[in-house]
Write a structure and sequence with these properties.
The protein is of the alpha/beta class. Helices cover 49% and strands 7% of the residues. The protein folds into three domains: 33-164, P-loop containing nucleotide triphosphate hydrolases (Rossmann fold); 170-240, Helicase, Ruva Protein, domain 3 (Orthogonal Bundle), CATH 1.10.8; 249-364 and 408-428, Zinc Finger, Delta Prime, domain 3 (Up-down Bundle), CATH 1.20.272.10. Strands 2-3-4-1-5 form a five-stranded parallel sheet, sandwiched between helices. Strands 6-7 form a two-stranded parallel ribbon. Helix 6 links the parallel strand 2 and strand 3 (111-116). Helix 11 crosses helix 13 (209-225) and helix 17 packs antiparallel against helix 18 (308-323).
């Protein structure tokens, strides 16, 4: 029976996909994550000393979350149980907790529960874990691709250490690919990859070790079917298909990418802004959301330095509704380039923030009598409008009078930045202060 099981295991391994065959079995074989797994780093120390306490592993696909859990299972003396939040429910969790409690009481052995895709558990399901995690009945390893601050209950998150795994660098992905080519568990030296094909496979992986191995295995089969042991660029392109863009319209990538987009516009980096725009559109982001953010940006970050920017942004937003994708990408790109190149000023947002701050601090007074409405019976008898000077009756259609409440005269909400058109002007003329009048 044992011989049969061993033979079956070897057969399963031989027929398993390349990522499964090449999955690291030790921390030394792990690619990337040196900030967590380098010598002396906290997570490595906890795993190797079998002293791990509840943790949340947060990272993109292919960064090594499940692999870390499997390595932990090999190194721990505690029982190791695996559940997936995709298919498990509260009943399954309670069964694991009950077994862990019994095991701890009868045998003195602890339990580690690896819960993959933990973000798929709702609040009630996550709450079911709390008592066992808090009293040490079990140690939880939760794996998620989503931002845990959005997806994991605060009480559960506060009882676990959070470790963030980063996408692999291109060099790290290349090392994974090269290891797969030479190792017996991988392709065993049966194939070589030309430089262009190698670069393409690394590029389309986008930091995902699993993806590069899936593409490499398919490229090898394509080369083999053509009677070659050399993988060429055409094999790599066919195997990889369209480049995968990691973007989640409702998750972490949504917030991070739009933040990078706005900051690139603010920093006047045209190429970076176009990159983030293309990345959002390719990832399926709603173009109306992008357009709305650009309209906001036009007043918040360009403002009076170039008032045409608001018109450009609004027209781009209208074009998205009128034209739609894919053609509206041109209108959005047009506006992005304009906004990135525009002179910048934040005097508009600074001015409205200052005005609102006065109201929040209860700095306001009654409307001055001369500014009060006088268009209804009895208003004049109350003195409403008395003393008001009509600007159009004066030269230049301007007359000096107070418009703020008493005690708030000359509040400096708007302070021109001096950028572009955002300069002080003479009241009634619109001409920059200090400029010569018409002769």
């Amino acid at each position: 029976m044992d011989l049969f099981d061993a033979a079956a295991d070897r057969a399963r391994e031989a027929n398993a996909p390349l990522p499964a065959r090449l999955r690291p079995r030790t921390l030394a074989e792990m690619a990337g994550q040196a900030h967590l797994l380098g010598p002396g780093r906290p997570l490595r120390t906890l795993i190797e000393s079998d002293a791990l306490r509840s943790v949340i592993l947060w990272g993109p696909p292919g960064s090594g979350k499940t692999t870390l859990a499997r390595i932990t299972a090999e190194l721990t003396a505690r029982d190791f149980v695996t559940l997936s939040a995709v298919s498990a429910g509260v009943k399954d969790v309670r069964a694991v907790i009950e077994a862990a409690r019994r095991r701890l009481g009868e045998q003195g052995r602890g339990t580690i529960l690896f819960l993959d895709e933990i973000h798929r558990f709702n609040k009630a399901q996550q709450d079911a874990l709390l008592p066992a995690v808090e009293d040490g009945t079990l140690v939880l390893i939760g794996a998620t691709t989503e931002n845990p601050y959005f997806e994991i209950n605060s009480p559960l998150l506060s009882r676990a250490s959070l470790f963030r795994l980063e996408p692999l660098s291109d060099d790290e992905v290349a090392a994974v690919l090269d290891r797969a080519l030479r190792e017996p568990r991988g392709l065993g030296g049966e194939f070589e990859v030309e430089a262009d094909a190698h670069a393409h496979l690394v590029g389309v992986a986008n930091g995902d070790a699993r993806r590069v191995l899936v593409c490499l295995e398919l490229a090898a089969r394509l080369a083999q079917s053509a009677g070659r042991s050399r993988i060429v660029r055409a094999d790599a392109v066919a195997a990889a298909g369209a480049r995968h863009v990691a973007h989640d319209r409702a998750g972490d990538a949504h917030y991070d990418v739009i933040s990078a987009f706005i900051k690139s516009l603010r920093g006047s980096d045209v190429n970076a802004a176009l990159h983030w725009l293309a990345r959002m559109l390719e990832g399926g982001e709603d173009p109306r959301f992008v357009a709305r953010r650009m309209v906001i940006f036009a007043s918040e970050d360009v403002g009076l330095a170039d008032s045409d920017a608001l018109g450009v942004a609004v027209h781009a937003a209208q074009a998205v509704d009128l034209v739609g994708l894919p053609e509206a990408r041109l209108n959005l790109a047009h506006a992005v380039i304009y906004l990135a190149r525009a002179v910048k000023s934040n005097s508009v947002i600074a001015a409205i923030d200052a005005a609102e701050a006065d109201l929040q601090e209860r700095r306001f007074g009654p409307v001055p009598a001369h500014l009060r409405g006088s268009g209804y019976p009895g208003a004049r008898r109350l003195g409403h409008g008395e003393g008001y000077e009509y600007p159009h009756d004066f030269a230049g259609h301007w007359v000096e009078q107070e418009y703020l409440p008493v005690g708030m005269e000359e509040r400096p909400y708007y302070v021109p930045s001096g950028q572009g058109d955002d300069v002080p002007v003479e009241p009634g003329t619109g001409r920059p202060t200090g400029s010569e009048g018409e002769g």
